[in-house]
Specification:
Elements: H1 7-23, H2 26-29, H3 43-66, H4 77-81
């Protein structure tokens, strides 16, 4: 690999905001306004924070894949002179 990000990772980075927008779009989000309350929390709140957390985690993974590789550190010259 030559250090450039993969096409799939770049495509995912472009599509992630659109997917997040769709998942938080009012017509879709109203599907989760029912009376169900997991752990006493309204389902819509669990859904919103779950989607938010998923977007953040996927973004972290994508950033790691899209970062250019760092160059290895140069060896310390003082350490090689002592030997």
């Amino acid at each position: 690999m030559d250090g450039t990000p993969s096409h799939r990772a770049q495509s995912a980075a472009v599509l992630l905001p659109a997917l997040g927008l769709f998942l938080l779009f009012p017509p879709f989000i109203t599907l989760f306004t029912g009376p169900l309350r997991p752990f006493g929390i309204p389902l819509i709140v669990v859904y919103i924070f779950g989607v938010w957390l998923a977007i953040v985690l996927v973004t972290v993974l994508l950033v790691r894949r899209l970062e250019p590789p760092t160059a290895p550190a140069a060896p310390d010259e003082d350490a090689t002179d002592q030997a």
